[in-house]
Design a protein that fits this description.
The chain is an alpha/beta fold. Helix content is about 40%, strand content about 20%. The longest helix is centred in the first third of the chain and has 17 residues, at about 90-105.
């Protein structure tokens, strides 16, 4: 089988993304990588790390120390740890061009580094996350799922203020999320009959309505209807016990109702190896599960484990 071609997007040029990409290209990955981004930032990172880096034309095969590049130059010269709002357009353009190339079939997947949301918004571009950007570009509904070797955690809602979460959990939205998650576990991960644990929203999963009615009025009816269609769904479960090892052994993924309900557990169980997947796109997209780490940029101390895991996972899904 030929090696899949993956788009590699470093993300914020002033953060650790470029140096993580430089570290990644020192290895073989069972895939051909092509970077979409600012060549000067990648070369500066290579110089800081004292590692070899040469660019090849887009579409060429990658090899250790040689990275094909689709040049998307930063408008403002970057300094380690100092994001420039003037580079917002080029940062977004790298993601959009990589996504378009995947949609055309030029690449079979995309691995992405961390993006600095505040710098992009300061540059005049309304941006809430790459997941939403790629979903809008592809014209499809998606689900965010984070995973490591211990647990897979998908999210019913993503980057919302906590006071907005209950209103965002609707029957149609929850059913759509579960369908995307179920289909991805089957088709992308090869699990014939996925077992999904679904958390409640409230403490003790609402305790029969005494601590909130979202479980009774929304979550439980959706689960019942989808079970009738053949899905193996457990819940709504109290979040404080759902992540016990014995419980996790009985499921293939957990659906959390909001961001900080499920992700602290996943990150505690293996932050360095965790990756962020966008389920529902026509191609696999896997991102690092950490931020731009501006305080580490250029120091050589940034851990590349998450990007290496993202590339490995993306290559596996592409194959």
């Amino acid at each position: 089988m030929p090696r899949p071609r993956l788009a590699l997007v470093p993300g914020e040029p002033a953060g650790v993304g470029p140096e993580l990409c430089v570290r990644a290209i020192q290895h073989e990955h069972g895939a051909n990588l092509t970077a979409f981004g600012d060549g000067r930032s990648l070369l500066a990172a290579a110089a800081a790390l004292q590692l070899p880096l040469a660019f090849a034309p887009p579409g060429a095969d990658s090899r250790p120390g040689v990275l094909p590049l689709v040049e998307i130059p930063a408008a403002v010269a970057t300094r380690f740890g100092a994001p420039e709002p003037g580079n917002a357009a080029s940062t977004i353009a790298a993601l959009e061009q990589a996504g378009a190339a995947c949609l055309r079939g030029d690449f079979q997947g995309m691995a992405t580094g961390p993006v600095h949301k505040a710098a992009i918004n300061a540059g005049g571009i309304a941006y809430t996350g790459t997941t939403g950007l790629l979903a809008a570009q592809a014209g499809c509904d998606v689900v965010m799922m984070l995973a490591n070797d211990v647990v897979r955690v998908a999210l019913a809602t993503t980057h919302l203020p906590l006071r907005e979460v209950p209103d965002a959990i609707t029957a149609d939205g929850l059913a759509g999320t579960l369908r995307i998650l179920h289909a991805s576990l089957r088709h992308d991960f090869g699990i014939d009959a996925p077992r999904i644990a679904v958390l409640g929203l409230n403490p003790h999963a609402g305790e029969d309505g005494n601590l909130g009615r979202e479980e009774l009025d929304v979550i439980a009816p959706v689960l019942s209807a989808l079970r009738a269609g053949g899905m193996d769904l457990h819940g709504p479960l109290p979040a404080d016990t759902a992540f016990l090892p014995a419980k996790l052994a009985q499921c293939d993924a957990v659906l959390a109702m909001y961001h900080d309900q499920g992700l602290p557990v996943l990150k505690y169980s293996g932050f360095e190896q965790a990756v962020n997947l966008t389920l529902g796109l026509p191609y696999p997209r896997v991102a690092v599960d950490h931020g731009t780490a501006l305080d580490l940029a250029g120091s050589g101390r940034a851990d590349p484990s998450s990007l290496l895991a993202a590339i490995r996972t993306c290559a596996m899904l592409a194959r």
